[in-house]
Amino acid sequence: MASHIKALTSPYPGSQVQRRLVPSQKVSWTAEWPEYHPVEYTAPSVLSQPPWADPALGKEGFHPKFNALDGSVQRQSFTGTYQVDNETPRNPVGRTGVTGRGLLGRWGPNHAADPIITRWKRDASGQKITDQKSAKPILQFIAIQRKDCGQWAIPGGMVDPGELITATLRREFCEEALNSLEKSGEEKCTEEKINNLFSQEYLLIYRGYVDDPRNTDNSWMETQAVNYHDETGHLLDLLPLEAGDDAGKVQWVDVSSSCSLYANHANFIQILAEKRGAHWA
Question: How far is 6 from 3, CA to CA, in rounded Å?
Fold first, then answer.
C-alpha cells in the first residue's frame, strides 16, 4: 500500500500549485536525480500557525525531535526510521514533487485515525443478504462525503497530541457521522449505543503510511484504520446518522470492489472484507 499515486497529483489540493513531475523510476530517494528541484508550498492556513501546526523550521525556539516522541507530539513513523536531511524530514516513500508542508500541520508524520463502523446488510426479516455470485454476506459501512473534495471516505481525523487512539476514533466518528458538535448534552451521540459500540475490542485493519494528495516531501499522512462491528445490528440500525464537521453527507454504503473512496480508503475496505469474510468482487 505504500506507493505514490495520489501524492503525485496536481494541482495540489486547495491551490493552483503544480507539482514537479516525478517519473515512477525517480520516486525513490535511492534513485539519483541531481536535477530534482520541486516547488515549495505551505498553505496560508498552516503558515498562520494555528495550534495544530508546527512553526517554520529554523524558527527560534523550535527544535523538533524527529523519529521520537517530541513532548506530546508523536514524530515516530509507523514505517520505521525516516531520513532527516539538513534537519528536514524526508517522506519515507519518496519524492512527491513538492516540498514544505502543504496543508499538513506537522513536519514529518501527521497521524490520523479512521474508524470503520460496520454491520451486515439484512432483509426485512432480519436475515443477512448475500451476493448471488460470491455467495458471501454483504457488509455495510458508514461513509461520509468530504466537503473539501466531494469524495466519499471513512470518517476520521487527526490524533491530537497526547490523545489515545481510542479517544480519537470515537470523537471523529461522533463529530463527522453524528454531528455531535451541534447537539446539546442529552442529545449527544445516543450515549448508550455509542458506549457499547466503542467499548468492544476493535479489529485493526491497517497501520501505516497513506497515499494522500496532501503529502509532500517533508510532511505526510499516516493512519490507524480500525473496525468496530455490530454483528447483530441492534446497536446501529436506529443510530441517527447526521453529517457534521468536515462531512457534507453521511450514509451506509455496501462493501464491494466498486467502492471509489478518498486516498487509500478503498484498500482499507478491501482488507476489511477479507478479514470479515464478506463479499468484495
Answer: 9
